[in-house]
Each structure stands twice: as C-alpha cells, then as structure tokens.
C-alpha cells in the first residue's frame, strides 16, 4: 500500500509531477496491500499457462503451412492428449504453484521487492530482466544436470520427459518436486538485484513465455528470439527431449553458453554437422541429376 493519500502528496514526496504510468499505478495500487499486489502473479501465471500455448494450437488451425516449421513433424498429439496435458498442468498449478505463491510473500518482503513510487525507468527494468535471465540460466543449468543423474531422473525429472516431442502446454508439465527445485533459480535474480513489483511481474511472465516458446515444437524463422545472442530456442531444446532420458546434452534453459563452455552440446553440434553435410549432399546430387530438392534439417532429423 502506498504511503500517500493523494497524488499531490506523492508528487511532493518524490519532488516532481507523476508520469502517466505513475499516475495509473497510484490510482490502482494506492489502497491495495503489497500482499494483494504480489498475488497478481497467480493470475498472470494462469493466463500465461493457458493462453501462450493456445497460440500455437490456434496457429495450426488457421495456417495450413505451419507443419513445415514443426521440428518433429511425424509426431502429432490429438486434441484430447493436449487437453490432458493442460489439465495436468492446471492441477499442479492449483495444488502447488498457486499455494507456493501465496505462502512465499515473506521472502519477497525479505529481499526488498518494492511497490512504491517512483516507478523504475525502462532502462532499469530491462537491465534487471537481463540480470535475472542470466542468473536463472546459469543456476538452472546445473540443477537441470542434477535432475539427469540416475536418481534425479528416475524419481523426478522423468515426468517432464514423457513428451519426447514437446508442446507448449508441456513446458510447466513436471513432477511437483521439480516445480519446487527449478523455482529456486527463478527467485535468485530478484533476490540478488531486487527491483519493483512491476519488474518482478514481468520477469515471472516472460520466463514462462520463454519456456513455452522453447517447448512449442516449432522453429519459426521469423521468431524475435532468433535475434537474441546465444539464445537456444525451440530447435535447440527439442533435441534434449528428442534424445530422451539418457540425454546429457543441451541442458540450458535460455542461453547456450553453459552447454558450450562445459561441453554438453557436443552431441547436438555433431548431429547438426552431419545433417548439414547430408543436406548439402542431397542438394548436390539433385542438381547433378537435373532435379531439385527442398529438404530441411528437421525433416532429416525426423527420418
């Protein structure tokens, strides 16, 4: 709850007129408790888990040529299978994720996530989000590797790997213990560099949207993430699921630098090299014989 009763009091306290965004924030949050504002995360996560994966399913209905961008085109889940995945995610959401959000507010108070004025600048928000992504990516890498040891996989992580050809709804599909374990990296960034509640909301939502995009099963050439340096993306993470439980490759959650530094992308890079050579060989053969071939890496992989 803001410590100001009027906009004039707020402007006097911060020494300048409120911006349009700050006026909007004041009108919305002035009489609401910090705990109530924090609990908005539950609503945001519900919307992200429900709507972001739905985008890909709707795209399948309205865009007939989308199949050519599917990473594993020979595997197609039925509507009932996708619905069952969503229902399982919602069950985990209401039994684990939601209650965890409700109970974890003291930790948010402890690290100093603020709700007051002034609002952070766009530059501050972007800088903090970059820090959060880097910290989460590094710590998630090692926890993900731990979950691929014999005990971790058999007891916990195998649930997430039930989908060897992942879909958007399967991004948060996991054992309850994995939800708790991998929640730690997401919290570390805000704990190290605490910011405003708005930044925290954006961080939670963007991290889940990124995970859903990574698990979408589609590798779109026009995706904005193609222009992010060292970003893994759907095709990169799909290999991890494609190999399955024995996979010791591509552990990265967002970026690829940890896999490169620690040598856990060698299998992936070797396969990519072979597929590119095969692709070029088929093209060359087609040209020599007067024909033309349109062959993609994902097609070769699926065969």
What does this protein look like?
- The protein is mainly α and 303 residues long.
- It folds into 2 domains: 1-31, no CATH class; 33-264, no CATH class.
- The protein is built from 15 helices and no strands.
- It has helices spanning 7-14, 20-29, 34-38, 40-62, 79-103, 105-111, 122-147, 150-155, 176-181, 183-192, 197-214, 233-243, 257-261, 266-288, 297-302.
- The longest helix has 26 residues, at 122-147.
- The chain is elongated, with a radius of gyration of 22 Å.
As a whole number of angstroms, the C-alpha radius of gyration is 22 Å
Average pLDDT for all residues: 89
Low-confidence stretches: 289-303
Percent of sequence in beta strands: under 5%
Dominant shape = elongated
Q: Main beta sheet: strand number and arrangement?
A: none
Counting structural domains, the number is: 2
How do you describe this structure in short?
With 303 residues, the chain is an all-alpha fold. Helices cover 62% and strands 0% of the residues. Helix 4 packs antiparallel against helix 5 and helix 7 packs antiparallel against helix 10.
Name some characteristics of this structure.
disordered C terminus; 15 helices; single chain; oxidoreductase; mainly alpha; 303 residues
Secondary structure blueprint with pairings:
Elements: H1 7-14, H2 20-29, H3 34-38, H4 40-62, H5 79-103, H6 105-111, H7 122-147, H8 150-155, H9 176-181, H10 183-192, H11 197-214, H12 233-243, H13 257-261, H14 266-288, H15 297-302
Helix pairs in contact: 4-5, 4-11, 7-10, 7-11
